[in-house]
Request: fold
Amino acid sequence: MSAPWQAPHADRPVDAVISLPGSKSMTNRALVLAALGGRPVRLRDPLDARDTRLMAAALVELGVSVERTDTDWTVRPGALSGSCTVDVGNAGTVMRFLLPVAALADGPVHFDGDPRVRERPVAALVGALRALGADVAGDALPLTVCGRRGLPGGDVELNASQSSQFVSALLLVGCRFDKGLTVRPVGPPVPSQPHIQMTIAMLRAAGVPVDDSVRGQWSVPPAEPACAEWTIEPDLSNAAPFLAAAMVTGGAVRIPHWPLETTQPGAQLPALLLRMGAQLTLDGSGLALRAGPVLAGLDADLHEVGELVPVLAALCALASSPSRLHGIAHLRRHETDRLTALATELGRLGGEVRETGDGLVIWPAPLHGGLFRAYDDHRLATAAAVLGLVVPGVEVDDIATTGKTLPDFEQRWQQMLAGGVR
Reply:
């Protein structure tokens, strides 16, 4: 294992313009929709990172052509073949989105990945696929889907309280089922609802009608996605550490091309940071943030935006007043148990943090340097980088894990500190 990364310490307020890579969520949805269509599709400015490369490689294993250049990718659909193995890494979207795709293949498709992904929930999705006629051996990875070149489809009940990706996975592929698909969630509320709205918006943009007129129910008819080109938005969730850098150093960051309208959950980030004292401007040129005079604590239900929690928790550990982050019990089953990991690692640096049944309570406390373990979780690693800007001596055991969704993070971080534009 490589030596820990020495998190850079800021000797002056951050003042930079940051250009973000493309959205992972949009890129992986666009790849799946393109693979299920009938003509080549061009992806403009997709994210080129571990999770999206895993999705592209998996589709190639299934018989789809993906041609990648520096800025654009071209997807050429093909007959979905089986008798292959798909490596999902630790990517929930790859694991969950491709299980229903594999049911359309001709032959068995074996799924496996990193050790942690074998612990991530997928059984409810597998149960729904079986109810729709799929042949699936196993309820957690490793597992095998025995593709039969299609599924009857129809109505299905689904407990998606562990991940909204269960719903998105079925909706993305349900239009290729013989009778289409109607999903009726049962059980506790579905988290991360904006991700479902993203799926619906992208299906509609590809010409697939989605009926969401009945609350808590979604339907798609049999249809072929038809979209010649996708322009991928910047990944707004990946803006979190850079905007946080401005707040903790008393500086300013501008992010060009921030969309005025979007379904990305990261779009809620400016409003959350405003509550913590940020000064913000959002217009056609992008988002500009300047630190306010005080970094305030935060009391917020983050059920819809769990991916923002690690960086927000880092900000709360540096805030002047207590914070309560709640509605996020589902984060225990993400890349790691994010709640326990954050409580443990912030505590190792002197933070005062208590886990609750569905979140964290964080009190102001003087922090000190030390090793911050990332648990192979990209968002924990970026949270530690934020702390290191103002807490000397913070080290991260595995900064390379940021490559999951944010390529070249170390270089981007250094360039931000130098005031550069990327």
In short: The chain is about 30% helix and 20% strand. The two ends are 30 Å apart (CA to CA).
